[in-house]
C-alpha cells in the first residue's frame, strides 16, 4: 500500500500535468446572467471571467456544464479543477473546498408576480404565516427559507425557469433566489409579468472554488482575479451582463 504522502505527491503531479493542458472549469448553465446556455453556447459573467482568467494565466479554460448539485463532488473527484458557477461562500461549503477571494457581493431576493406587489411591498411581509415560498434545493435561498421562514410553505424547484412557471400558475407567492436572477428580470422582455423588489434578504459573497489541497491553483486564480479587478476587466464584464451596479472590492 502506498504511503499517504506518496499518494498526495502523485495526485499533485497528475494535477499539474492536467493543468498544463488546460484548466477544467465546472459551471451550471442555468443561472443567467452569471452562466447559462444561449444558442448552444455557455455565456454569461462566469464564462467571460473564465476566458479573461485564461488570458491572464496563459491557459485554456475548458468549460464543463454540470448540474449544480454535482459541482462540488466533481471538484473533489478531480473531474473539474475550479468551480465558476455563481457559488455563494458558506461555512458548510468552506469545509469542502477552498474559496478564492470573492468577486461579487450579492444577496437573496424575492421575486413575485406583479399583481402581488401590494401584498409583499413591505420587507416584513415575507415573514407572514402561510406564505408559499419557492426555492432551489441546495442553494443559500433554500437555507434562508429553512432558517428564517419556519411558518412558510416551502416548495422546491430545480431552476429559476421552473420557479417562474410556478409563480405564473400561482403555485407559490414568492421565489427566493440570488440577486442575479432578479437582475435578469430587468433585461428580459419575456418576464414583464414578474418583478423583484430588489431588497436583499441576506448578505452574501460569490467566489470561485478549488480543491482543498490545490494551493497552487488557488494562488494563481487569486492573482488573476486581482489583475482583472485592477485593470477594469471585471467591471467591464459586470456592466455587459447586468443592468445594475454591483460592488467590486
Description:
The termini are far apart. Helices cover 37% and strands 21% of the residues. With 249 residues, it is an alpha/beta fold. Strand 3 (35-38) and strand 4 form a beta hairpin. It folds into two domains: 18-105 and 205-241, D-Maltodextrin-Binding Protein, domain 2 (3-Layer(aba) Sandwich), CATH 3.40.190; 108-196, D-Maltodextrin-Binding Protein, domain 2 (3-Layer(aba) Sandwich), CATH 3.40.190.10. It has helices at 4-21, 45-57, 71-76, 91-94, 140-148, 160-168, 179-185, 215-230, 233-241; strands at residues 23-27, 30-31, 35-38, 41-43, 61-65, 82-83, 98-99, 104-106, 108-113, 132-135, 153-156, 174-178, 194-196, 204-206, 209-210. It contains nine helices and 15 strands. A five-stranded mixed beta sheet has the order 5-1-6-15-7. The chain has a five-stranded mixed beta sheet with strand order 11-10-12-9-13, sandwiched between helices. Mean pLDDT is 89; it is low at 7-18 and 245-249. The chain is globular, with a radius of gyration of 19 Å.
Describe the structure concisely for a colleague.
This protein has 249 residues and is of the alpha/beta class.
Labels describing this entry:
2 domains; 249 residues; 9 helices; alpha/beta; disordered C terminus; D-Maltodextrin-Binding Protein, domain 2; globular
Q: Could you give the topology of this structure?
A:
Blueprint (H helix, E strand, L loop, with lengths): L3 H18 L1 E5 L2 E2 L3 E4 L2 E3 L1 H13 L3 E5 L5 H6 L5 E2 L7 H4 L3 E2 L4 E3 L1 E6 L18 E4 L4 H9 L4 E4 L3 H9 L5 E5 H7 L8 E3 L7 E3 L2 E2 L4 H16 L2 H9 L8
Parallel strand pairs: 1-5, 1-6, 10-11, 10-12
Antiparallel strand pairs: 2-3, 3-4, 6-15, 7-15, 8-14, 9-12, 9-13
Helix pairs in contact: 2-8, 2-9
Amino acid at each position: 500500500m502506498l504511503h499517504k504522502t506518496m499518494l498526495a505527491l502523485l495526485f499533485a503531479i497528475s494535477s499539474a500535468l492536467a493543468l498544463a493542458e488546460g484548466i477544467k472549469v465546472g459551471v451550471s448553465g442555468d443561472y443567467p446572467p452569471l452562466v447559462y446556455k444561449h444558442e448552444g453556447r455557455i455565456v454569461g459573467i462566469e464564462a467571460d471571467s473564465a476566458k479573461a482568467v485564461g488570458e491572464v494565466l496563459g491557459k485554456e479554460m475548458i468549460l464543463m456544464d454540470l448540474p449544480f448539485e454535482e459541482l462540488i463532488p466533481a471538484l473533489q473527484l478531480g473531474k473539474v479543477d475550479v468551480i465558476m458557477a455563481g457559488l455563494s461562500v458558506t461555512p458548510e461549503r468552506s469545509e469542502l473546498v477552498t474559496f478564492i477571494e470573492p468577486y461579487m457581493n450579492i444577496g437573496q431576493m424575492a421575486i413575485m408576480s406583479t399583481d402581488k406587489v401590494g401584498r409583499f411591498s413591505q420587507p416584513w411581509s415575507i415573514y407572514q404565516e402561510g406564505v408559499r415560498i419557492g426555492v432551489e434545493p441546495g442553494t443559500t435561498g433554500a437555507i434562508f427559507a429553512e432558517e428564517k421562514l419556519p411558518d412558510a410553505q416551502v416548495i422546491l424547484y430545480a431552476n429559476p425557469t421552473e420557479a417562474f412557471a410556478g409563480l405564473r400558475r400561482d403555485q407559490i407567492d414568492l421565489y427566493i433566489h440570488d440577486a442575479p436572477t432578479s437582475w435578469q428580470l430587468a433585461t428580459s422582455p419575456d418576464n414583464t409579468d414578474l418583478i423583484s423588489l430588489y431588497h436583499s434578504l441576506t448578505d452574501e459573497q460569490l467566489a470561485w472554488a478549488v480543491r482543498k489541497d490545490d494551493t497552487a491553483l488557488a494562488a494563481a486564480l487569486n492573482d488573476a482575479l486581482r489583475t482583472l479587478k485592477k485593470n477594469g476587466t471585471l467591471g467591464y464584464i459586470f456592466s455587459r451582463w447586468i443592468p445594475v451596479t454591483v460592488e467590486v472590492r
